[in-house]
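Milestone 3.1: sequence recovery, worked example.
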């Protein structure tokens, strides 16, 4: 039985951003230096992370540094350019695919810069998990708002 995640949305609103997420997923927040990292995780290995980068790196730099890290780890990595919006702005984005433990894994990376910070979204899951989780991941990504742009 598939749960309609629209019936179980919770709101996150801190650190100048807000988004909605399925309350059946676990949410965790931590600081790394001046960056804020908010991760929403499913019961399996699927997750969605929003990183608030106060150093304001350009979005291509934020995404490409992640892509380079994956390229060092996985020699069979496939990288594709995608279209995505974050905080209602066109984002610099890439999707990655690689095999790990005989499972196909997909990663989405997208980033935008606001006047206050750069937002980097990273989601990941195995193909069989993403069949159910992708609509939730897409919803979280589309729901991100930079509060400073709303006020």
């Amino acid at each position: 039985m598939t749960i309609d995640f629209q019936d179980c949305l919770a709101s996150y609103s801190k650190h100048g951003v807000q988004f909605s997420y399925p309350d059946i997923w676990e949410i965790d927040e931590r600081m790394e230096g001046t960056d804020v990292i908010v991760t929403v995780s499913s019961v399996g290995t699927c997750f969605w992370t929003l990183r608030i980068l106060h150093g304001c790196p350009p979005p291509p730099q934020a995404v490409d540094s992640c892509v380079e890290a994956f390229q060092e780890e996985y020699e069979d990595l496939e990288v594709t350019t995608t279209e995505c919006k974050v905080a209602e702005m066109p984002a610099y984005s890439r999707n990655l695919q690689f095999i790990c433990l005989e499972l196909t894994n997909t990663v989405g990376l997208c980033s935008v810069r606001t006047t206050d910070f750069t937002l980097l979204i990273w989601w990941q899951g195995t193909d069989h998990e993403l069949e159910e989780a992708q609509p939730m991941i897409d919803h979280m990504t589309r729901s991100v708002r930079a509060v400073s742009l709303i006020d």
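The chain has a mean pLDDT of 92. Residues 74 and 98 are 7 Å apart (CA to CA).
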